[in-house]
Amino acid sequence: MNQAIRFDYSNARTFVKPHEWEQLAPAIGQAHEMLHKRTGPGRDYLGWVDWPERYDRAEYERIRQAAARISSDSDVLLVIGIGGSYLGAKAVLDILGHSFYNLLPKSKRRSPEIYFVGNNISPVYISHLMDVLEGKDASINVISKSGTTTEPAIAFRLFRNWLEKKYGREKAKERIYITTDKSRGALKKLADEEGYETFVIPDDIGGRYSVLTAVGLLPIAVSGADMDALMQGAADAREQYMVMDLHENPCYQYAAIRNALYRKGKMVELLVSYEPQFRFFAEWWKQLFGESEGKDGKGIFPASAEFSADLHSLGQYIQDGMRHLFETTVSVTKPAIDMTVQGDPDDVDGLNFLTGKHMGFVNKKAFEGTVLAHVAGGVPNLLIEIPEATAYHVGGLIYFFEKACGISGYLLGVNPFDQPGVEAYKANMFALLGKPGYEEQKAELEARLRDNKTYLTVAETAAYLELPETFILEKISQGRIRAVHDGNEYLINKDQFKHHLEEMRKLREYEEAARHETIPESYDVKDED
Ligand SMILES: O=P(O)(O)OC[C@H]1O[C@](O)(CO)[C@@H](O)[C@@H]1O
């Protein structure tokens, strides 16, 4: 079978001249070579390229069996993970499942309730989730490649304790499933010691590319979605998007056109859908592109909107605000379910002209009208359309975006497969929390936090202190100012600075008084320590 994903960039054509487009063709060819011959930066993380063909069939079977076990002995599956360790599964579950799958009565549900946790550090969220678990049988799938990511690790501690209290340590072991590195890391070690069942996140596949591995597949299998079709859809997409020719390959066309738009100042890409079930698909896509491209001072900012809801909130900006946006709509030709608009005898809202029309049709017209308006308003529009929201087409869509992202990153000249920028906040958080080994950073960061409290800009400080012109000021970091006066250099914050000036004012008064021989008796020049 062939993937029938349609990529239409006709509503972006007026923004990109044919020669700009043509000139990208050689760069696309180069990016293709780098990806397929594994010669580009990040070449060790290209396991996803052929994964839909070469995935481990034995593990796949174990996933299916574990899912059946969880479905038979649990009312609830808790999926603990953050970023790439949960977004893909959540995206697929939402598209292929019922919009309210956790709320459906058991008789109408094909799976346990599934909740995602460990993707924040909110005590409120976690304790609310614990309320939901009361009286229910649960299993846990912890997903973390490193095994030491703070958010999931904290959640795992809590829910593991919860399970052990409920079932006892031995029985709890049968309800804990670990997806992690095949041989390294804290989770792997713990799983081996405790005898938890484990699944592998391959070494050569990064978190944001891992949805079609055990990372996504176990929760997806538990939800009852058709894993086989999902993998087949991805495998067919792999085959189709292997063609190097830009004119033949819609996946490469998407990568090329977004790059051409970026070069013209379109810095923000809004991934839009008219189906709320795609909300988390957009979240998955944001990590994929944001973490892959946003580096070295470059990259399109990936944002998302859900229409028509956001047309009533963001719509004004999109139509009329800063012209640095382009839109990519992900659309489904045929909605899984359709309904008709009902008539109203009084026609109070004046909408009787829609009576009997399908809501899918109304939604489509909302889309067409929006595209026309936004394009006229200077927002280029791209369309990626799948015929139906089935597992097969979702698998294809995932692969389409994964590959487009790799190509796009190489076009941009970055390493699309690392994420060094994520470490900055982690290091600061660990230092501030007092993690052993971070002592020096802790002192420095705490000083910065203190300084921030009295922070003024250089100009504000000068005005506030009525500085004599002989001072040369320069801001050297948040809250710190370098002042040079009479050849002396001071690194100070506002309060220290005030103190220095007060001393100088007194000194000036003293010199003045000395000239007039009227030194005040109360005057006392303090030594500075
Ligand atoms: O699976 P881990 O190691 O817990 O990491 C989770 C997420 O954290 C990151 O490493 C950085 O935020 C992502 O790339 C990854 O998806």
TrEMBL record:
<dbReference type="Pfam" id="PF12728">
    <property type="entry name" value="HTH_17"/>
</dbReference>
<comment type="similarity">
    <text>Belongs to the GPI family.</text>
</comment>
<dbReference type="InterPro" id="IPR001672">
    <property type="entry name" value="G6P_Isomerase"/>
</dbReference>
<dbReference type="InterPro" id="IPR018189">
    <property type="entry name" value="Phosphoglucose_isomerase_CS"/>
</dbReference>
<feature type="domain" description="Helix-turn-helix">
    <location>
        <begin position="455"/>
        <end position="504"/>
    </location>
</feature>
<dbReference type="InterPro" id="IPR035476">
    <property type="entry name" value="SIS_PGI_1"/>
</dbReference>
<comment type="pathway">
    <text>Carbohydrate degradation; glycolysis; D-glyceraldehyde 3-phosphate and glycerone phosphate from D-glucose: step 2/4.</text>
</comment>
<dbReference type="GO" id="GO:0051156">
    <property type="term" value="P:glucose 6-phosphate metabolic process"/>
</dbReference>
<keyword id="KW-0312">Gluconeogenesis</keyword>
<dbReference type="GO" id="GO:0097367">
    <property type="term" value="F:carbohydrate derivative binding"/>
</dbReference>
<dbReference type="GO" id="GO:0004347">
    <property type="term" value="F:glucose-6-phosphate isomerase activity"/>
</dbReference>
<comment type="function">
    <text>Catalyzes the reversible isomerization of glucose-6-phosphate to fructose-6-phosphate.</text>
</comment>
<dbReference type="InterPro" id="IPR046348">
    <property type="entry name" value="SIS_dom_sf"/>
</dbReference>
<protein>
    <recommendedName>
        <fullName>Glucose-6-phosphate isomerase</fullName>
        <ecNumber>5.3.1.9</ecNumber>
    </recommendedName>
</protein>
<dbReference type="GO" id="GO:0003677">
    <property type="term" value="F:DNA binding"/>
</dbReference>
<dbReference type="InterPro" id="IPR041657">
    <property type="entry name" value="HTH_17"/>
</dbReference>
<dbReference type="InterPro" id="IPR035482">
    <property type="entry name" value="SIS_PGI_2"/>
</dbReference>
<keyword id="KW-0413">Isomerase</keyword>
<dbReference type="InterPro" id="IPR010093">
    <property type="entry name" value="SinI_DNA-bd"/>
</dbReference>
<dbReference type="Pfam" id="PF00342">
    <property type="entry name" value="PGI"/>
</dbReference>
<dbReference type="GO" id="GO:0006094">
    <property type="term" value="P:gluconeogenesis"/>
</dbReference>
<dbReference type="GO" id="GO:0005829">
    <property type="term" value="C:cytosol"/>
</dbReference>
<keyword id="KW-0963">Cytoplasm</keyword>
<comment type="pathway">
    <text>Carbohydrate biosynthesis; gluconeogenesis.</text>
</comment>
<feature type="active site" description="Proton donor">
    <location>
        <position position="291"/>
    </location>
</feature>
<dbReference type="GO" id="GO:0048029">
    <property type="term" value="F:monosaccharide binding"/>
</dbReference>
<feature type="active site">
    <location>
        <position position="426"/>
    </location>
</feature>
<dbReference type="GO" id="GO:0006096">
    <property type="term" value="P:glycolytic process"/>
</dbReference>
<keyword id="KW-0324">Glycolysis</keyword>
